[in-house]
C-alpha cells in the first residue's frame, strides 16, 4: 500500500487544492466513489471517507484511493474506552491515511492513548504518522442543542476548552467550525492543525443540517488549514469548475491571512 500524502507538508502549500478535502460521503456504489476521486484528484488534495462509505466498502476503499495517488481523511470519529480507541488508532495508522479523528469528549486518557498508538505504530513500521485530530463540537450543533444536551456553556466556550485538552493530550489538531477558528488560534497557537467542515459558497442555497458555516475564503483567512466540502461540489452542474472556484477562494484566503499576519508582526 502506498504511503498517503502528508497533511503536514500540504498544510504549508500555497496551492488551494492542497487545502481542500472533498467529502466522499457516498455509500451506494464503490465505482461511483472512485469515479469522484478520479474526477477531482487534481483539484482536491485529500478525500474524506466517513462512516457510510467505510462501513459499506471497508479498507479496500482507502487502498483504491491511495492507488489513485490521493490522500485520505478517515472520518470515523472514534469514541470509546481508551484501549479500544488505541487499537483503532493503530489500525488507522497502518492504513497509511493522511489524517483521522477521535471525539474529544472521549476524554484525555482516550486521546493520549490514541496519540501514543499512532507514534508507536509509525516508529515500528516506518510509516509517516497520520495527523490525529479531535472532533470538538459537530457543526450540526449550536448553543440551543448544547443546552438541550445538558451543557451549561456555549459552543464558543466548549470548543476551545476541548481543543486545549486535545493539544495537551498530544493530538495535532481539531475538526471545528470555521466560526471557532479565531478563538482556537488564540488558545492553541499557529502550529495546531484546524480542519473545518460546514463550508459553503456565498451564493449556496442548500437544505442540509449544517448550522455554523463560512465561505472558503473566510475560513482560510481566519486561520483554517483545511476545509471540507462535499455536497456543494457533488450537486454542482460542473463539479470540477466549482472545485477550482473554491481553490481560487482558498488561495485568496491564504494571501489575505499572510498579509494580516505580516501586518501584525510589524
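-> sequence recovered:
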Amino acid at each position: 500500500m502506498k504511503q498517503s500524502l502528508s497533511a503536514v507538508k500540504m498544510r504549508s502549500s500555497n496551492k488551494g487544492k492542497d487545502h481542500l478535502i472533498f467529502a466522499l460521503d457516498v455509500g451506494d456504489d464503490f465505482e461511483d466513489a472512485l469515479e469522484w476521486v478520479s474526477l477531482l484528484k487534481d483539484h482536491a488534495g485529500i478525500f474524506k471517507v466517513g462512516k457510510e462509505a467505510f462501513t459499506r466498502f471497508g479498507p479496500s476503499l482507502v487502498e483504491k484511493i491511495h492507488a489513485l495517488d490521493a490522500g485520505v481523511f478517515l472520518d470515523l470519529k472514534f469514541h470509546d474506552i481508551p484501549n479500544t480507541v488505541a487499537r483503532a488508532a493503530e489500525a488507522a495508522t497502518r492504513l497509511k491515511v493522511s489524517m483521522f479523528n477521535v471525539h474529544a469528549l472521549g476524554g484525555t486518557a482516550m486521546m493520549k492513548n490514541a496519540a501514543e498508538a499512532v507514534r508507536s505504530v509509525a516508529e515500528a513500521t516506518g510509516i509517516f504518522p497520520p495527523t490525529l485530530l479531535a472532533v470538538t463540537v459537530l457543526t450540526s450543533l449550536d448553543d440551543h442543542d448544547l443546552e438541550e444536551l445538558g451543557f451549561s456553556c456555549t459552543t464558543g466556550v466548549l470548543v476551545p476548552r476541548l481543543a486545549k485538552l486535545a493539544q495537551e493530550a498530544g493530538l495535532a489538531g481539531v475538526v471545528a467550525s470555521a466560526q471557532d477558528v479565531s478563538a482556537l488560534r488564540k488558545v492553541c497557537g499557529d502550529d495546531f492543525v484546524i480542519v473545518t467542515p460546514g463550508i459553503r459558497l456565498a451564493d449556496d442555497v442548500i437544505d442540509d443540517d449544517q448550522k455554523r458555516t463560512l465561505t472558503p475564503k473566510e475560513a482560510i483567512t481566519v486561520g483554517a488549514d483545511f476545509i471540507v466540502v462535499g455536497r456543494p461540489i457533488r450537486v454542482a452542474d460542473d463539479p470540477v469548475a466549482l472545485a477550482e472556484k473554491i481553490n481560487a477562494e482558498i488561495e485568496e484566503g491564504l494571501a489575505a491571512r499572510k498579509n494580516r499576519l505580516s501586518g501584525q508582526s510589524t
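The radius of gyration is 17 Å.
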